[in-house]
Amino acid sequence: MVEIRLLSKLATASQRQGASERKTRVYTPVHEGVSTEATQLLTAEVEFGKKSISVAPMLDWTDRHCRFFLRLLSKHLLLYTEMITVGAIIHGDRHRHLAFNPSEHPVALQLGGSDPIQLAECALIGEDYGYDEINLNVGCPSDRVQSGRFGACLMAEPDLVAECIAAMKAKVSIPVTVKSRIGIDHQDSYDELAYFVRQIEKAGCDQLIVHARKAWLHGLSPKENREIPPLNYPWVYQLKRDFPGLPIVLNGGVTDLDQAAEHLKFVDGVMIGRAAYHNSYMLAAVDQYFFNGTLAIRSREDIIADLIPYVQEQARLGVAVKHITRHLLGLFQGVAGGKRWRRFLSDHSHLVDADYTVLLGALAYTQHT
Ligand SMILES: Cc1cc2nc3c(=O)[nH]c(=O)nc-3n(C[C@H](O)[C@H](O)[C@H](O)COP(=O)(O)O)c2cc1C
Questions:
Q1: Residues lining ligand 1, CB < 6 A?
Q2: Which residues pair with 78 in a beta bridge?
Q3: Could you give the residue numbers annotated as active site?
Q4: What domains can be seen in the chain, in order of their start residue?
Q5: Cα–Cα dist 135/165, whole Å
Q6: How many angstroms separate the alpha carbon of residue 261 from the centre of ligand 1?
Q7: Each residue's pLDDT expressed in tens, for the chain with a length of 369 residues
Q8: Cα angle at 289 between 265 and 53, to 5 degrees?
């Protein structure tokens, strides 16, 4: 039954796919001061820098297949690539790193690097590929990143970060943004953070995303450093008061849309990371909740129906279904059948002859009693 309903939707879904190509750099706003009760009819698109809800850059997670899937959940979410180093773009398989589906717009490219010339070159390449924003990673604490002198350790070098931003701004016309922490190691006073922000604002940074937790560069793994030390939201709110002209996006520990709405009373945007990945269906309510109260929330079944033509198209290009289904495990998080969904996908997606029918099988399996 499920299979018949889904298959009948495939034709329409594949027509829709690809119809949403978009090259403009406009963002749809979330309503000022949206309350947890309010869902506002707000469909007008406005310039970059207004309220936004985004999914965080996550290495190995937010690849292009993940982003295609996330876009099916919400038209308005701003999506970020995983961090891509300048070395990978300049010397590696550029197309593999940068290619994306037009339906992913608006999508931002996150760069890892600290050489202004290389960053400027990569920003231009990113703009030519059609990305809507270039974001510089100043928040990753891993050892590998530190040895390359980029990521969170750059918070200790505000002048260099400013130079990098100025170099990128000189090359591209799309927004250039930064994602940082609130401090690193013993550089952890609000004044030091404000100094950093002042420098990057002066250099022309179009928006700052702040993971509201200090980075420990020694002694904690990046995973531990996403839980420890505690989050400090008041500092992020304070940044908005001290830098009213610079759009500030809060990141860290946001697990549902009510929390996001609460933060939006104080900042310009909210970025969600792990919760968006592990409990992805919560994003299906974003468009209705923040952007247009009359939009129906799409069912999981509809989302899967829209994904199937993509899985088929990718299969023709030689992409195994497991590279797509691995991002879907959280779609039934917290509802009946969720474990069965995960188990079916994990058990069947890696088989040599696996194809899109694993999605139909997993869906039917969620309904077993
Ligand atoms: C698996 C994983 C990979 C990540 N990779 C990146 C990355 O490439 N670039 C980056 O700026 N942050 C990265 N982060 C950090 C997230 O973007 C985000 O700042 C962090 O998870 C806190 O947000 P959350 O509490 O909503 O998850 C990563 C996080 C996770 C869980």
A1: 56-61, 82-83, 110, 137, 139-140, 179, 211, 226, 251-254, 272-275
A2: 54
A3: 140
A4: 22-291 (3.20.20.70), 300-366 (1.20.120)
A5: 10
A6: 20
A7: 545 455 555 434 434 433 333 333 333 334 333 333 333 323 333 234 468 999 999 999 999 999 999 999 999 999 999 999 999 999 999 999 999 999 999 999 999 999 999 999 999 999 999 999 999 999 988 876 766 788 889 999 999 999 999 999 999 999 999 999 999 988 999 999 999 999 999 999 999 999 999 998 887 888 888 888 899 999 999 999 999 999 999 999 999 999 999 999 999 999 999 999 999 999 999 999 998 778 889 999 999 999 999 999 999 999 999 999 999 999 999 999 999 999 999 999 999 999 999 999 999 988 865
A8: 60
